[in-house]
Specification:
By secondary structure, the chain is of the alpha/beta class. About 45% of the residues lie in helices and about 15% in strands. Helix 3 (about 45-55) crosses helix 4 (about 65-80).
């Protein structure tokens, strides 16, 4: 069994179910209502891309995406955690990683300040070695820049690191970084869509408890 020393973990769809809160903020921006299924299709590539996808969905492809994204972020900052909740096994996994002194990097395509705020609310007391969000120091996923910076910071070789995510973007990110990975089928993407995106079936897991089995 592989023994990992460092874990790079995605936030939305992996540790936290944030769909309803993002959908709520999108609804305020566009003055409409989006289903959870719609919101899941929009997210995973940063909030700007979520706004763009939502605009296209409702026939507003010519909208000012940058302005709408600023509005979305303002709404989201007002209420970052209303319906958001950890997925089953998330708190237990992070707590066990801390207890074993294993290293954790959160890598999200959510804005840096929002990522830090939401982590503080949802996982109080958990120690993170690094938190990388958008508009921070590193490029957004699928860039491997933050992963490489993290592993250099903690002096852990790539073969002793595991990436955990829930989307094709996470798969591409881990592949670009040349690290081992597991992709959840219980987040924002279905097993079928993940397989169609090229994710190896052997890397798919249906629960964060499966990650604990790798410790």
């Amino acid at each position: 069994m592989h023994s990992y020393k460092a874990f790079i973990i995605d936030l939305d769809g992996t540790l936290l179910d944030t769909t309803k809160d993002i959908g709520l903020a999108l609804g305020k921006v566009f003055g409409t209502t989006f289903t959870d299924s719609q919101t899941d299709r929009f997210v995973g590539r940063g909030l700007r891309n979520a706004v763009k996808a939502a605009a296209e969905e409702i026939g507003q492809a010519d909208a000012d995406i940058d302005n709408l994204t600023e509005k979305l972020i303002d709404f989201y900052r007002e209420v970052p955690v209303l319906y958001t909740k950890p997925y089953p096994g998330a708190v237990e996994l992070l707590s066990e990683l801390n207890a074993r002194n294993l290293l954790i990097c959160i890598y999200s395509n959510k804005e840096q300040d929002l990522t830090e705020t939401i982590l503080g609310i949802c996982f109080p007391g958990i120690r993170f070695s690094m938190v990388a969000g958008m508009h921070g120091k590193y490029e957004s996923k699928p860039s491997s820049q933050a992963i490489e910076a993290f592993l250099s910071l903690v002096n852990v070789p790539k073969q002793e690191a595991l990436y955990v995510g829930d989307s094709e973007v996470d798969f591409k990110t881990a592949s670009n970084a040349c690290v081992n990975f597991r992709i959840l089928t219980t987040g924002t993407r279905s097993k079928e869509s993940l397989l169609e995106s090229g994710v190896p079936e052997a890397a798919l897991i249906d629960s964060l408890y499966s990650v604990r089995d790798l410790l």
